[in-house]
Amino acid sequence: MAPLNPNAQRYSPTMMWGSTPLFQFGDMQEIIQNFVRVHVDAPGMEEGAPVFPLGYQYPSLDQLADMIPCILQYLNFSTIIGVGVGAGAYVLSRYALTHPDTVEGLVLINIDPNAKGWMDWAAHKLTGLTSSISEMILGHLFSQEELSGNSELIQKYRNIIAHAPNLDNIELYWNSYNNRRDLNFERGGDITLKCPVMLVVGDQAPHEDAVVECNSKLDPTQTSFLKMADSGGQPQLTQPGKLTEAFKYFLQGMGYMASSCMTRLSRSRTASLTSAASVDGNRSRSRTLSQSSESGTLPSGPPGHTMEVSC
């Protein structure tokens, strides 16, 4: 858990689940100096975690989401901005569905809101017969093109996972993720995320179709969709600068960091962030982020109490 910044109390805390490397990026410091930042590890995922005993019943992702209120109560936080990757994105989304008044915004990277179907389940079982747990997790994190290229990043994560002292714990977490329930998002229905959401996925990433489908089920007036070119399966690792700028833009749309300059967005002419634009009553709310267009400062609203949780 990161230390709290006493100078950041005018903004809400940010809760993170699985996105720690992104917040270590240099350009991200402009953001985190304005927020209280809290990193949450799933049980047994923290550095130096002991291996769970044989037969340990690992929590489901729903149960992990149910733990968040205790964390907020302990830290005396009333609202959060959640940042999650993969399973962390799912956990934060599940929490936001049951506690919408405590979530100001969500940044969801590589979210798959769907339960595994029978075909997915069968494929997973067959893969498990021929592949190690570390190789299955790598195939979940990175595209086949990235794995075939065997870059330095792939080699690094292959070594980290294969030699992790808590690999048995990781496998339990992996199994919980694969047994997740469907979030049942429905555009225009009762089951939806009611806060501003930024969906992020890499072009040709393993989770691209799932994130595109998720975008189609959420409120277009509240949702920004960012598909990042040349970023592979983990855009927070391969394109942290572009993702940081998009995060600033997202926060500005929520009324934070109004004075921050979107320098990288105005310089870059290569990538684009696409999303839906729609009309809500007499208001037209565009949720398009484009790195091939001019950038500016979004109108700022009253500052809230936000907590950043990185998952």
Automatic annotation (TrEMBL):
Pfam families: Ndr. Keywords: Cytoplasm, Developmental protein, Differentiation, Neurogenesis, Wnt signaling pathway. The keyword Glycoprotein does not apply. It comes from the Eukaryota. PANTHER family: N-MYC DOWNSTREAM REGULATED. Belongs to the NDRG family. Contributes to the regulation of the Wnt signaling pathway. Down-regulates CTNNB1-mediated transcriptional activation of target genes, such as CCND1, and may thereby act as tumor suppressor. May be involved in dendritic cell and neuron differentiation. This is Protein NDRG2. It comes from Camelus ferus (Wild bactrian camel). The lineage of its organism: Eukaryota, Metazoa, Chordata, Craniata, Vertebrata. The gene is NDRG2.
